[in-house]
């Protein structure tokens, strides 16, 4: 179930809000019972939300909940290090089976083919293009929705309990709610247990918080539906064509659109998740902080998918020694973290290359480039440098395989315009989406807001802001309903 | 705080009100509900949930069910479509052409076309109609004695432009007489129509004989060709916006055929030819005549309306294949590209807004196939072809998501082919939309025709069924059913659009065993 769907906005969310409010009113005189009842409502809603994708996935999540809930009890007391490692391994094993086993089978098949037939070029090409030989009768495992997120949250829980950063959660209900909470279940942000521990028991709802949740949700929805979906159409159309001969202008258009798509899609979804959390009294940390104005790659990773980079920092980088070790080890730690960051995104070598690129850049910045960038007074150069590599990284992120990525990069710097008219990929909506996208990729809006909040006309601004938000919500709903238009196209073959 | 309350209330309102209003309207005013819940042109059944659907494994069906019944869905979609058309219309009609001319206009050659009349004339004979070339004949009845005759003219019936006159001579000396026919008189032409050539029409002059009513068209001037650079523009699901409002299809690899990037090599053509010849020989051994027609794609016939694509080869795949098959086999295989191009000077033979040929195109294709198979052909110029409603639905509008109201009407024709032959029985009058069409004509012959093909087969039906006692036409997707109809077959025809040229081999591969079993 997507947040940007008719069923979520006009059926699921109203039902959850009504239920949440109803139990709150029923148990209004007993705060503990009220909180418990509300948590039950949220848990049931979350399980329904997740089970919508298939009952089997609920069973898988149930298994993860079971293993981690009961496993955490064994972390209290002596000799728990071994049990901690086993639990971590169990979580990673589940993730490996569902996310990476298909790739493992593919690589194994091709390696054995290479050994048997001595056709290593063929085998390597197959590995790089993710082509199976089919020698093993293996049916690909379907990746369960959100598994990367809730496994990481499970690891966060058991790590925080093991290290004493958080108390053991004795209530299975509260633990299950933390893992399965629907706003952040499928696309984050990854919430560390220690950040939410207290909110499971003590959180205050208010009209102000609810309204701020509405604002975040509406802006997130508009980012996704009005900007991301629109530029995605352009990017997808171009990426579906044969890359060779497309021409530089068309490929740059595709890359710009994809750069915008991934930011507005992901940050939009995060904003919606944060907004939904607020409607129920939860305060999640922001997940994006205008990453495209970064002045270095290090700065980029402080602004992009903050919850993920924080997770890796807290549970991988720091335990490995972080920066408080020899330079060699520090470099090793950076390489490990970003390799894992790349792999986390998907079972494809393109993500490995993507992660590795950032690892190498960060190492270079750590060694000498960072100081140069910091000292450079012309920050626009820093921003161009950052954006150039970020966009280069997106080519690998988007491409189906490494060969396609390299061909795309080659086409970015080709001469000639190819056979296509760049204007035929654009439309009024696409141009408007690009225009607004460029504006809202920058912190123009919060700066304007901050300036006006000190003025006497701030009440007028707030009124206009509310009106704009409601209009954006209505336009987004029109777009969502219109996207259900699915005509039978009569075409004889 | 006030702001927060207003924001919250408005949000709750948008969340709850539409659904509540919609349910209320449905319960309390079914008339209003029917007015608001109308077909927005989707032409499909709304999603239903049946007991067979396993909603436990995938909630998509529930999602689709709910989406199809969203409150005020029809109104919202209509509003969106009309607004979108206006917004995008500005871009397509004003901004894009302006920017294209500003940044992309080049002086390179665009589409060009050489139209030869050779193949057309081979098919229908020299295209001169009822021309006045005969000189008359002599009918001698010279009886009587052998002495020198002294013939005098006794009777003369003057010629007209349609009937030869007669001069009767009688010998003064004996009863010998003879008659001679007089040559037809020259038509008394007046020019009735002078069509100036432009980008969409050939120039020509029409002449009417005021004595007999015969109409002749001559003084042809070729269409102008817009050879300015026009960058390709693809909209919707692979629809190319061509010159002068023509639409073409870019999907399913058709552009590879157009650009000549998929020409077969010798080995591939040889393989194709061998399979065809083998099947043809098998059919012959069973007394069955076999023919194949590859229907050229619209963009090949009307390349002058395509945008400027770079052509890797001008001698393209199916033209080369057809020439090869003709040179090494005796299979009746036709790819009537030049015939269709030439016929285009008289009639538009493909639909402007559909991927298919129209009735004229289907006729020319059928006649070309008949010519290859040794079946009688009729020159279309001798039929009284008249303009008619388009036969094709304009599938490219739907595929491209294009508003058809902004495009001029398409043109099609009715061809009164063998109107003296009646079809005594047909299983379905709407032959355009059924997978198996069966008909029997009255008193033609005992021949039985089986046709297997794709969508190009349908418009050929009126010109096929009138030459056979029984005609059964199958869509290639129901090929397996053809096995049941093979008894008594005398002719088999395979029809394939250019992009489906390999389907011919798939079809004959399947049919080989069935044909082999005939008579066993």
Q: How would you write the strand order of the largest sheet of chain B?
A: 12-11-19-17-18-16-15
Low-pLDDT windows of residues of chain B: 106-113, 127-146
Regions with little confidence, pLDDT below 50 for 5+ residues of chain A: none
Q: What percent of residues of chain B are in strands?
A: 15-25%
Question: What would you say this structure looks like, in words?
Answer:
The complex is a heterodimer of chains A (493) and B (520). Chain A has 493 residues and is mainly alpha-helical. Chain A has 20 helices and no strands. Chain A starts with 5 loop residues before the first helix and ends in an 11-residue tail after the last helix. Chain B is of the alpha+beta class and 520 residues long. In chain B, 33% of the residues lie in helices and 19% in strands. Chain B contains 15 helices and 19 strands. Chain B has helices at 2-28, 30-36, 60-68, 73-103, 118-124, 254-259, 266-285, 298-301, 317-328, 337-343, 359-373, 395-400, 461-464, 479-482, 503-516, and strands at 138-141, 151-157, 165-171, 177-182, 189-195, 203-209, 215-221, 234-235, 239-241, 247-249, 289-295, 332-334, 386-388, 412-414, 423-426, 436-441, 448-453, 470-475, 491-497. In chain B, the strands form 5 sheets. Chain B has a 7-stranded mixed β-sheet, sandwiched between helices. In chain B, strands 1-4-3-2 form a 4-stranded antiparallel β-sheet, with no helix packed on it. A 3-stranded antiparallel β-sheet of chain B has the order 5-6-7, with no helix packed on it. In chain B, a hairpin with a 7-residue loop joins strand 5 (189-195) and strand 6 (203-209). The longest helix of chain B is centred in the N-terminal third of the chain and has 31 residues, at 73-103. Chain B is globular. At the A-B interface, helix 1, helix 10, helix 18 and helix 20 of A face helix 1, helix 3, helix 4, strand 8 and helix 12 of B.
């Amino acid at each position: 179930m997507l947040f940007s769907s008719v069923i979520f906005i006009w059926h699921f969310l109203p039902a959850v809000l009504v239920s949440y409010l109803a139990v709150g009113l029923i148990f209004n005189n007993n705060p503990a019972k009220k909180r418990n009842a509300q948590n039950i409502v949220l848990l049931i809603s979350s399980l329904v939300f997740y089970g919508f994708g298939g009952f089997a996935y609920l069973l898988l999540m149930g298994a993860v909940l079971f293993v981690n809930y009961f496993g955490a009890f064994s972390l209290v007391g002596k000799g728990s290090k071994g049990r901690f490692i086993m639990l971590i391994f169990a979580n990673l094993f589940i993730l490996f089976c569902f996310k990476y086993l298909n790739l493992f089978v593919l690589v194994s098949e091709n390696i054995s083919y290479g050994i048997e037939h001595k056709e290593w070029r063929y085998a390597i090409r197959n590995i790089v293009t993710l082509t199976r030989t089919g020698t093993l009768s293996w049916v690909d495992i379907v990746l369960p929705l959100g598994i990367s997120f809730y496994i990481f949250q499970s690891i966060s829980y058991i790590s925080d309990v093991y290290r004493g950063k958080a108390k053991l959660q004795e209530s299975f209900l509260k633990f299950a709610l933390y893992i399965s909470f629907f706003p952040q279940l499928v696309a984050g942000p990854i919430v560390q247990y220690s950040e939410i521990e207290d909110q499971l028991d003590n959180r205050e709802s208010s009209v102000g918080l609810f309204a701020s949740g509405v604002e975040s949700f509406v802006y997130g929805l508009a980012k996704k539906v009005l900007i991301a979906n629109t530029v995605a159409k352009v990017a997808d159309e171009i990426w579906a064509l044969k890359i060779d001969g497309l021409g530089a202008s068309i490929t740059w258009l595709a890359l710009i659109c994809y750069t915008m798509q991934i930011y507005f899609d992901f940050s939009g979804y995060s904003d919606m998740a944060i907004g939904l959390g607020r409607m129920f009294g939860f305060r999640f940390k922001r997940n994006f902080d205008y990453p495209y104005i970064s002045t270095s790659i290090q700065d980029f990773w402080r602004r992009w998918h903050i919850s993920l980079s924080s997770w890796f920092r807290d549970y991988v980088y720091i335990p490995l020694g972080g920066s408080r070790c020899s330079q060699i080890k520090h470099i090793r730690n950076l390489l490990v973290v970003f390799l894992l960051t790349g792999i986390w995104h998907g079972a494809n070598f393109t993500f490995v290359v993507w992660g590795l690129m950032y690892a190498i850049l960060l190492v270079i910045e750590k060694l000498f480039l960072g100081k140069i960038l910091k000292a450079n007074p012309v920050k626009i150069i820093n921003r161009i440098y950052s954006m150039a590599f970020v966009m280069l990284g997106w080519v690998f992120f988007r491409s189906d395989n490494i060969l396609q990525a390299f061909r795309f990069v080659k086409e970015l710097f080709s001469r000639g315009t190819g056979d296509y008219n760049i204007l035929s990929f654009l439309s009024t909506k696409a141009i408007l989406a690009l225009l607004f996208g460029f504006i809202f990729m920058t912190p123009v809006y919060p700066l304007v807001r901050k300036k006006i909040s000190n003025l006497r006309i701030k009440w007028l601004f707030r009124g206009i802001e509310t009106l704009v938000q409601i209009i954006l919500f209505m336009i987004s709903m029109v777009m969502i309903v219109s996207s259900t238009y699915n005509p039978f196209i009569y075409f004889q073959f | 705080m006030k702001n927060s309350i207003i924001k919250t209330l408005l949000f709750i309102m948008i969340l709850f009100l539409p659904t509540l209003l919609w349910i209320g309207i449905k319960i309390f005013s079914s008339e209003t509900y029917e007015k608001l819940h109308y077909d927005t042109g989707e032409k499909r059944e709304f999603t239903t949930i049946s007991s067979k659907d396993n909603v436990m494994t995938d909630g998509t069906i529930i999602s689709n069910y709910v989406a199809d019944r969203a409150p005020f869905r029809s109104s919202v979609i209509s509003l969106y479509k009309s607004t979108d058309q206006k917004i995008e219309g500005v871009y397509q009609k004003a901004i894009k052409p302006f920017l294209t001319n500003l940044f992309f206009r080049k002086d390179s050659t665009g589409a060009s076309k050489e139209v030869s009349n050779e193949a057309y004339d081979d098919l229908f004979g020299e295209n001169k109609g009822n021309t006045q070339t005969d000189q008359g004949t002599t009918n001698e009845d010279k009886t009587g004695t052998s002495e020198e005759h002294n013939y005098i003219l006794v009777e003369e019936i003057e010629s007209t432009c349609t009937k030869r006159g007669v001069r009767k001579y009688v010998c003064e000396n004996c009863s010998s007489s003879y008659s001679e026919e007089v040559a037809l008189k020259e038509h008394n032409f007046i020019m009735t129509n002078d069509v100036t050539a432009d980008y969409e029409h050939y120039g020509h002059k029409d002449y009417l004989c005021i004595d007999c009513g015969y109409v002749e068209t001559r003084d042809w001037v070729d269409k102008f060709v817009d050879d300015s650079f026009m960058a390709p523009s693809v909209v919707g699901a692979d629809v190319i916006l061509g010159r002068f409002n023509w639409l073409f299809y870019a999907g399913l690899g058709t552009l590879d055929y157009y650009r000549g990037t998929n020409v077969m090599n010798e080995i591939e053509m040889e393989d194709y030819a061998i399979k065809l010849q083998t099947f043809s020989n098998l059919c012959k051994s069973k007394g069955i005549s076999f023919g194949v027609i590859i229907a050229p794609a619209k963009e090949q016939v009307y390349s002058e309306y395509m945008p400027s694509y770079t052509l890797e080869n001008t001698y393209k795949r199916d033209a080369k294949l057809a020439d090869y098959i003709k040179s090494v086999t005796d299979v009746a295989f036709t790819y009537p590209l030049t015939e269709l191009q030439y016929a285009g000077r008289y009639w538009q033979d493909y639909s402007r807004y559909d991927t298919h040929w129209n009735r004229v195109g289907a006729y020319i294709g059928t006649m070309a196939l008949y010519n290859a198979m040794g079946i009688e052909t009729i020159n279309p110029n001798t039929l009284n072809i008249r303009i008619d409603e388009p036969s094709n639905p304009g599938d490219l509008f739907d595929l491209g998501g294009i508003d058809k109201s902004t495009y001029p009407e398409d043109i099609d024709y009715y061809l009164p082919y063998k109107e003296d032959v009646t079809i005594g029985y047909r299983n379905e009058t709407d032959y355009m939309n059924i997978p198996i069409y069966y008909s029997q004509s009255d008193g033609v012959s005992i021949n039985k025709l089986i046709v297997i093909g794709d969508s190009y087969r349908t418009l050929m039906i009126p010109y096929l069924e009138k030459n056979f006692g029984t005609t059964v036409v199958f869509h290639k997707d129901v090929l397996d059913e053809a096995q049941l109809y093979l008894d008594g077959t005398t002719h088999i025809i395979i029809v394939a659009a250019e992009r489906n040229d390999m389907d011919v081999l798939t079809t004959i591969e399947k049919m080989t065993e069935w044909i082999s079993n005939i008579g066993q």
